[in-house]
Every structure is written in structure tokens, then in C-alpha cells.
Amino acid sequence: MKIQTLTLLTNNLKEMKEFYHERLQLPLRGDRAKSFSVQIGASILEFKKNNDDTDPFYHFAMNIPRNKFREAKSWIRSITNLNTHNETDEVFFKNWNAYAVYFTDPAGNIVEFIARQHDSIQKSHSHFNSDQIINISEIGIVTNQVQTIAKQINKIGIENSRQGTEDFSPLGDVEGLFIIVKSNRIWFFSDQPASFFPVEIKVKDFGTFIFNKVDKVSI
């Protein structure tokens, strides 16, 4: 599953553009009065101005080369603080065979660099910088009905990457995943309970998934 474009809402367009474009050095692909977008490897990350009194935040992840976890961690730590969990600032997921590190952007989004130790994930022989990020590889989708949303997406042709539960269900593969979680579940490496906010995801060969309501997906 290849995420081509991820569109999120924010109340902090100016600060977010400064963070992603100027500090993380991600190329600017669009810059308008109420939105901007940056290139993240093979994906585009777009932020649009939020038009209500909510304060949107999301969890999403970026794939990095499987041999560059240490360099990537050092690089992002030179730019912003790392999130911690149980007094550690990194994790190895045995079930995923992947190393990950987390940080929080100016809007409160919980962002993850993940180095999946899988043959399909490329290696790099260059010094790590933002050009080495491969793509956007995960987006968290918050709902009150995890299995209902998962089955709607299954019907479109995106299968579970592993068996889900009533609280958590991952769909897709190592290139891209929908992480479906139940409302109020605490996001890993944060103290934030998961909350629903609208999100759009353009996926290669499947179209654009629009989550405008907590328990419904439109294509």
C-alpha cells in the first residue's frame, strides 16, 4: 500500500511550514493562504487550515532506510526533542521487526521515524538527512468502531497486516499502513488519548480515502 498524499488539518500553518520546510528541510510542493505541502520521499504531506474550534492532532510515521536508524535518530534529535516512554527514547518492535523513534511537531502531531528490517525496505549509503526519508508509511485513524472501519477498508482490497482487535487493527503492508485505533487509546510514546479529526489519504491504485466522520470512510 503506497500512500501518495496525506492531508491533515492544523491551526498552526505558519509554525508547521517553518518546522517541516525550514527545519526538517523537506521540499515545499505547495504554498497557499490556507494550506501548504511538502515532499516526503515518494509521498506528499499536506496541511490545511482548520476551520472550527477544535485543535487537531494525528499520529503518522515515515519509513527510513533499514540501515539508518542510528543516524536518523541523531539527526532528528539535533532538530527537536525526542518523545520518551518508560525512560527510553527508542523502541524495537519485535512483532514488526522494526526500530522506531518518536517526536512531536508544533501542532502536537506524534510523528515516527521507523526503520523496518525488511528486504523490501531500501538501504542507503549516504549520510542521513531528509532526502533519505522513503515515504509516509503510517497514518492513525481514530474511531469508535475499529472492526467496522477495518472491514469497510478490507472490502476495497486492503487486507489486515495482522489480526486486529476491538481496540487496534493495522491494515496494509510495510510500505504503507492504516493504523485503526479506538477513541481514547493512548498513542504510544505520548500521553495523548487518541481523538478523531478529519483526514484524507490518497493511496496508489485505490483512490482517496476520506474520513470526515468518526465511524465512516468514503472513497
UniProtKB/TrEMBL annotation:
Keywords: Dioxygenase, Oxidoreductase
One GO MF term attached to the UniProt entry: dioxygenase activity
PROSITE patterns, alphabetized: VOC
Transmembrane intervals: none
Coiled coil: none
Record-linked SUPFAM superfamilies: Glyoxalase/Bleomycin resistance protein/Dihydroxybiphenyl dioxygenase
Entry superkingdom: Bacteria
Domain VOC per the UniProt entry, residue ranges: 2-116
Name of the protein in its database record: Ring-cleaving dioxygenase
Provenance organism: Alkalicoccobacillus plakortidis
